[in-house]
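Consider today's protein:

***
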Amino acid sequence: MKSRIWIEIVLLGTAIACALALLLATLGTAAGVAEGEASARQVPSAEHTYEGMVTCSRCGAKHSAALGQTAAICARMCVHGGANFALVGE
């Protein structure tokens, strides 16, 4: 008789655990869908067009002629050496 009571307690605990897991999964899914809809409603920012020459932050528009390289190669060498890319307006 005692073993039957323990089986009922274990079954009841398992049923409660499954119900809580299902509830949490449902709430998580609902929150994810609500977040996705909120981000989908945001209007994307206007597209910008920039004109100029891509160069490096070290040389700017004045690349060293002593290297004997093009401005593109000089910019890549400077960026590889730690500089950042930059945009110089024409």
Summary: The CA atoms of residues 22 and 49 lie 49 Å apart. The radius of gyration is 32 Å. Helices lie at 2-41, 71-80. The chain has a mean pLDDT of 83.
